[in-house]
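Dissemination and training. As part of the outreach component of the grant, students in the summer workshop were shown how a complex can be specified as a set of sequence lines and then modelled as a single object. The example used during the hands-on session is reproduced here so that future cohorts can follow it. Participants entered these lines:
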Amino acid sequence: MNILGISCFYHDSAAALIKDGILVAAAQEERFTRKKHDQNFPANAIRYCLQEGGIQAQDLNYIGFYDKPFTKFERLLTTYIATFPKSLPSFLKAMPVWLKEKLWIPQKIREELGETANLLFIEHHLSHAASAFFVSPFSESAILTADGVGEWETTTMGMGNDRTLTLTQSIHFPHSLGLLYSAFTYYLGFRVNSAEYKVMGLAPYGKPLFVDLILRELVFLKDDGSFRLNMKYFAYDYGLTMTNKYFHALFGTPPRTPESALTQFHKDLAASIQFVTDEIMVRMTTHLHNKTVSDNLCLAGGVALNCVSNSKVLASSGFKRMFIQPAAGDAGGSVGSAFYIYNMLLKNKRTSTWSNNFLGPEYSNEVIKEILRQLKIEGEQCSTDTLLKRTAQFIADQNVVGWFQGRMEFGPRSLGARSILADPRNPENYSRVNLKIKFRESFRPFAPTVLLERMKDYFEFDQPSPYMLFVAQVRSDRRTIPAVTHVDGSARLQTIVRDDHALFYDLIAEFEKLTNCPVLINTSFNVRGEPIVCTPFDAIKCFFRTDMDYLVLGNFVLDKQKIKESGYEMQIEETFALD
Ligand SMILES: [Fe+2]
Ligand SMILES: [Fe+2]
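and obtained this result:
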């Protein structure tokens, strides 16, 4: 039984393949096309998934699509009519795309993948819910999904039980927690559907001074967490911007120009919207916990990528255990639509729990060797043992290392397969990696990866956080890792056990032997605006365009200094738009 799941045409297109109930491959289209958040039909990701599964398109039994495009179209038309004539410019902009592309999704899929498989369109929030529950370790669980918008739903609540999943409560467009957060993202001069996590990273620099104003004017929030937005202030339902003149008047200034200075006002505003988001999430999940008897909670949808809110939910909703899969946003809808078909519609026994996150392509030492040969780059091949020892020593000697090992991660976080690594004990690494390696804003925090068995020595947290989806306080008696400790003393934590990624685990263990520190800075292998690297060639280009000192590519070590001394230079033409 082969089921392909597809998500596309809004942002973060992706494909996933399950074979006899096992998720064998999943990848985002952006990694192949090198266009961040690529929303186009994921032809490359599909090709990869089929290849990884050793099958052809005609071997597919089902294809799941992660929303119902016609219902979405109906919502669009209804909204445009309700807000006419203000909506005319947005209507004129959206229509060609719909008429040319989005209304032809079934035809497009048939054209690309043939007529054999059954094609099913799964409601967007069911796809989100399924993407968490059916791969969760729970036989029963409460479920909450929250994102920008699906067809009409923006938030749903329900229950999963064995092979069934029911959503019983929902909030509808235009009232949306995701779009509220995106409205502030826009107003703060960041890119919507892309830079929401920058707002989250900025928040600890500010004070939540505007919470009362937001809850008085913008959001009508009830005790149970349900809410309505005061649409007087927002433009996303009719316009080409997220907020309007009333919103700008409320805060006394127009939206921040992208890349201009961030003032205390912006920081306070980020803190305020983060606070409100936390409050809404905690109230909703507390209500859900009171209504259900379950101790388990599955979260999904773009809002579930907000690790600060996730931690607040874990601390105070009453749920004992939480599961969020790392591609909680729309990319994960591909996985969800496939499992919805497999478990819910076809009633197959649940066979998959999310065991690791490395679902993308991998490249053997032979392939790497051949690429190096073609590029005429000198790389030194060494045994795994030597590789680990040398890499740990590089990092301890304050070098920044590109680390490329095994299958690529699925979802927005690098978890040890495509990572840039550095020593967290050195405070200078914070600005060095931000400014000279990643060319990104100086306020952005870095995440630590810690050996799970040493977690409690450094962090106030008591369960695994394998996907960097929770924040924890760094223990005040252990503030020896300044490069990964945010201004409020928190860190966006990844814990690792050897089963997650043996090489990465062994590397950190090796670093611990040298330094007594079981923690590394782990940031995604890319520069600002670039999708995480996929192939060895992507990694090599990224290595040469930055100040990285070493690149460890499979069993090969590339030494920047040595390569430069040999006179080698790489001309890199491609550039990435800032995100
Ligand atoms: Fe979305
Ligand atoms: Fe979504």
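The pocket of fe (ii) ion (ligand 1) is lined by residues 10, 147-148, 302, 330 (CB under 6 Å). Students were then asked to discuss how this feature might be tested experimentally.
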